[in-house]
Amino acid sequence: MDKKFADEMIEKFRTKYFGFALAKTASIDEAEELSSRIVCEAYITLRSVENIYNWEGYMYKIASNVYAKYVNERVNHKNADIDQIDLEGDCNVEHEIVKQEELYALKKELAWLCKLHRQIIIMHYYDNKKISQISEELGIPSGTVKWHLSDAKKLIKEGMKKMRTHNLSIEPIDFSRMGHDGTNGYMGDTNVFLNSRLRKNIVYTTYYEPKTVEEIAEAMGITPVYVEDEVEYLEEWGFLEKMPGNKYISNVFITDISAEAMKKCGEIDKEIARKVSKEYIPLLIEKFKDYKYGISIPEDDFNYFLWSLVPYVLSKLQCGTNDKKYLKRENYMIKRKDGGEYIAFAHVYNEEVEKLGLANERETHYYICGDMIRSSSKGLLQSWSISTNIDSRENGWEDNLDSDYDNLYLYLAGKLPKNEAVVEKYARLYDRGLIYNSGHNDELNVVKVKVEKEEDNKDYAWNNAIDKVLPKLPEGLLDYIIKKCDEKVEIQKPYYPKRMHALLEAYSQVEINRIMVLDELVEQGVLKPLSERQKKGVFQMIFTDVE
């Protein structure tokens, strides 16, 4: 469900939930606890369901289910009324809980308490402050202070009885790949923010269900002291979302799939690639074999043109052929403080999955970074490109700069005279494979498509002659692709939390593995190998009004 609608529903039912909880518990403190649990559960549920006929009844059903769990907990734990707990006479928690030789263990256990628990324990037992003083200084009721003291002592006792042998250094997860879908801000993308194993494991442990800071720390085997600031940082930058009940949930689209599931999906991808290469690519070749439409190809090499045309056109199919069913990924993008707006994604490292070589990882054959759009501020020029392990450009999107296309536009317009003042600009154009030196002259090394600028159209480059004359898909091919992609989604769903299923579908509805299609065309003899020079410029196309 859309986040905005979920927020509106929560706001609508928040007061009703508190009234429900108060009627059930007859205690303001307990009602606050119960209602916060209901709100938290309702929010999670709302983000993972669609098309509920009776929202009113559904929301109250959630409240009833949470209340039933709450009653079971109360019965099992037989918690005493916090206002009846006599703590004023306690003189020293250390002597109450442990013997003198256990002091070190107790102090170590204090670090596992939440921030407020630690604060109240220290104020009461170490600073010798009375309940009433703590209540006044912290601005919370005396009964709540008593409850925190009682709960803290219980947690300390339980913690000292069990062995805390798990640690972050024992089998923490790691990501084999991180990235973004959208526009990064001035700080960079996901890699910059999830730059430590600690942060990676925080977003992972909150991925499948929301957790408090204490629950995060417990799951990771470290004390909350090391988690609190990191959680605040990740929430500030949009990688965690704070929920009712001081719980946090991950906003990162994390893939943690088994090798068996990955293999099944890979087999489906190959089936799609074979069918597309046999049924659609021949139509594409026939349409562009004379490459009219204002298209310029280096050395008139049609084979080189096809290497870029095929993945470009398939990207258009993925984004525009299924308008009725296609879910826009933009709905899931998060605005960041540094101006970025993107979906953060990560893949959990799995040795068995890596061995298959099917993942879209930087080291694998099927790696693709893109589709990347860049523009020149000097004139009418936009570019499309992807980064792969077939081309020989390095550093992916990070090294694909708008300034390169400023220089390319000036070069094409004859406004970049070759002298010492611009030697570095020419070096960049050579390095990015945008131009090459034939031995006598500098030549364009990428496919160029002529466009006419249209008023009030910021995406003028995409209203080009290629897009206008693309052949239609053969009858039944789109339905076949959608059906196969739906099969992939069903295989993958168990590995994602319910709230991410809609996004998984958005990524998978018309998904074509473009490298697999190119492999099929090479095997069929349709595509010939690229020269080293062509590997520098392949998978790039520019759209401009410059002749």
Explain this structure to me?
By secondary structure, the chain is an alpha+beta fold. Helix content is about 50%, strand content about 10%. It has helices spanning about 5-25, 30-45, 55-75, 95, 105-110, 115-125, 130-140, 140-160, 190-195, 195-205, 215-220, 230-235, 260-280, 280-290, 300-320, 350-355, 400-410, 425-430, 465-470, 475-490, 500-510, 515-525, 530-535; strands at about 175-185, 240-245, 245-250, 255, 295, 335, 340-350, 370-375, 380-390, 435, 440-445, 445-450, 540-545. The strands form 4 sheets. It has a 5-stranded mixed sheet with strand order 5-12-13-9-8. Strands 1, 4, 6 and 7 form a 4-stranded mixed sheet that branches. Strands 2-3 form a two-stranded antiparallel ribbon. Strand 8 (about 370-375) and strand 9 (about 380-390) form a beta hairpin. Helix 1 packs across helix 3 and helix 13 (about 260-280) packs antiparallel against helix 20. The two termini are about 50 Å apart.
Features:
547 residues; alpha+beta; five-stranded mixed sheet; four-stranded mixed sheet; 13 strands
Number of helices: 23
Alpha-beta content class: alpha+beta
Rounded mean pLDDT score: 82
Shape: elongated
Going across the major beta sheet, what is the strand order? 5-12-13-9-8
Please provide a brief summary of the model:
By secondary structure, this protein is α+β, with helices and mostly antiparallel strands.
